[in-house]
Amino acid sequence: MSWSLWERDIIRPRAAVIVVGGGITGLSAGYFLREKNPALDVLVLDRSDLSTGASTRNAGFACMGSLGELVDDAQTMGHEAVTGLYRRRYEGLQLLQQIVPPEEMDLHWCGGYELFGEGQEAEWAEVTGQLEAWNERIRAATGIERAFEVVGEAEWDEWRPRGGMGLGAIRHAVEGRLHPGKMMRGWRRQLKRVGGRFYGGVAVVGRGEAKDGGVRLVDELGREWEADRVVWATNGFVGRIFPEVKVKPARNQVLVTGPLDVQIPDACFHYNKGYVYFRRCGAGILIGGGRHLDPEGETTDRLGTNERLIGYLKDFTGKHLTEGPFEEVAQWSGIMGVGPEKMPIVEWIDERQVMAVRLSGMGVALGTAIGRRVAELITERND
Ligand SMILES: Cc1cc2nc3c(=O)[nH]c(=O)nc-3n(C[C@H](O)[C@H](O)[C@H](O)COP(=O)(O)OP(=O)(O)OC[C@H]3O[C@@H](n4cnc5c(N)ncnc54)[C@H](O)[C@@H]3O)c2cc1C
C-alpha cells in the first residue's frame, strides 16, 4: 500500500533517523539524538501505542542485581565484566532520573533484600564469603560505600519470611521501585519536548534495505518509511527480523495480590539469583518470575499466561509471605531479550544501521545509558 499524498504530507515518513522500537532504549536513543543534534529529524516507530515489550510490562524494580546474581555471573563473565556492568546499571539509573524526574515515575529508593532459604546453605556461605570483596569492587567502581550488608538477627527476626525461607538475607543499599507506565509516559514527554516524533501502531516488517543513499523500511500495511540512519531497539522481538542475532525472547510472569497482611518491609526482594522477585504493591504484593522452572515454555515472544508458573508464584506467596487465601487483582506477562552472555548488543550492523538489544532483566537500569550510547555512535558517524 502506498501513501496517499495527504498522508505523506502529514505523517512525513522520511526522517534523518528512524528508531524501530519505542521502549526505554528506543525512546532514550531518540531523546539523546535530538538533544545532541536539535536539527536532526528523529522519528520513533513502535508497533503499539505505549510499547508492548518489557518497558511497560516489567515489575517496576529499579534494580542492579543481587549479590547472589553477581557472584553467579562472575563465574561465566569474570569479576571485571560483572563490576563494569553493575557500574553501567548504576550510571543508567542516575541518568534516568536526571531526565524523567523521580516524582513523575514514582521512583522510590527503598533498598532491596536477597533471601536465602533452607537448602541453600552452600550458596549462602559462598555469597556471604564474597561480600566484602564485592563491596570493595563496587566502591572502587561507583563510589557506593557498602552496597551489601548481611541483615542482622534483630531485623531478621522482625520480618523473616515463613516456610523454610529463614536462612538469611543480604541487604542491597541501592535498589528502588518505580511505576513503569509513568516512566514511559515521562520518556514520551521528554522526546516530544526536544522535538522528536513518535508513531505508535507501526509494525516494521523485514530488515532495512538500501535506497537512495539511505535505508528503506516497510511496515505491515506495506507503507514505506525512509531514513539516513536506522536504529533497531526491538529487544526480545529482534529475532523475528534478525534470527541470526544472539538474542532469545524470555517471557516473565507477574502477579499482583489484593490487600495482604504481610510483615516484609517496603523494599525489592530477590530469591534464587533473581529468578523470583517480589515487593509490596499498594496494600498487596507484586511477585514475578519463576522462569527457571519452565525455560522452554517461556522462550517465546508471545505474551500469555503460563499456568504452571502462576501456580508456583501463588504457592510461593501463600507459603512464604502470607497465611490463608488471597485475592489476585492483576496478572500479566512481559518479554525480555536475553542471550548467551549478559552484555547488551550495541553496534553498527552495516553502514547505516545500529542495533541496541539484549537488555536482559536490566533494561530499566541500562536502557537510558544505552540510548545515549546509540546517539553518540550516530553523531560520531554523522560528523
Ligand atoms: C517481568 C519483568 C521484570 C523485569 N525486571 C527488571 C528489573 O528489575 N530491572 C531492570 O533493570 N529491568 C527489568 N526488566 C527488564 C526491562 O524491563 C527491559 O530490559 C527493558 O524494558 C528493555 O527495554 P527496551 O526498550 O530495550 O525493549 P522493550 O521495552 O521490549 O521495547 C521494544 C519495543 O519494540 C517494539 N517492537 C518490536 N518489534 C517491532 C517492530 N517490528 N516494529 C515496531 N516496533 C516493534 C515493541 O512493541 C516494544 O515496545 C524486567 C522485564 C520484565 C518483563
Order of helices and strands: HEHEEHHEHEHEEHEEEEEEEEHEEEH
Q: Major β-sheet, in short?
A: 8 strands, mixed
Please tell me the overall pLDDT.
95
Radius of gyration, whole Å: 22 Å
How does the overall form come out from the CA principal axes? globular
Could you name the ranges where pLDDT drops below 50 across 5 or more consecutive residues? none
- How far apart the termini lie comes to 36 Å
Helix content: 25-40%
Q: Beta fraction of the residues?
A: 25-35%
Structure annotation, total helices: 9
**What small molecules does this complex bind?**
flavin-adenine dinucleotide
Count of DSSP strands: 18
**How would you classify the helix and strand content by structural class?**
alpha/beta
What do you see in this structure?
- The chain is built from 9 helices and 18 strands.
- Strands 1, 2, 8, 9, 10, 11, 17 and 18 form an 8-stranded mixed beta sheet that branches. An 8-stranded mixed beta sheet has the order 5-6-4-13-14-15-12-16, with helices on both faces.
- A hairpin with a 4-residue loop joins strand 10 and strand 11.
- Helix 3 packs across helix 4.
- The radius of gyration is 22 Å and the shape is globular.
- The chain starts with a helix and ends with a helix.
